[in-house]
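Side project, low priority. Logging it here so it doesn't get lost.
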Amino acid sequence: MGKDVVASELEQRLAELSALNELIKALTSTLDLSEILRIILHRIKLMTQAEALSLLLYDGDRNELVFAATETLRENALVGMRLPPNQGIATWVAHSGQPARVERAHLDPRFYPAIDRAAHFSSHAIL
């Protein structure tokens, strides 16, 4: 392995450790779950360079996914929004247990455009 490869791997590892350290500091500064979720999503967004992230929780009583936290341009537009039981790529993932990587979200039949309308956002790719 060349010195450049080793240096690059060390730089990447240092960046990951630095991000983890910042995350731990932020998480220990609050006990508010919504704030903790926001911090985690923000850090993931920075590390992955994603345009937006969402955390959805499953409501077993209503058989729905509910947006618990988002990291988008319009932070609170989706929090509390419920997905109908058979709508959305995230719902398909939750029910099937399979991951989904969709490059052209709007062309996928599982895509639920009401999410984009509510967030005033245009999803391109979804993971």
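Brief comment: The beta strands are 53-59, 64-71, 82-83.
Revisit when time allows.
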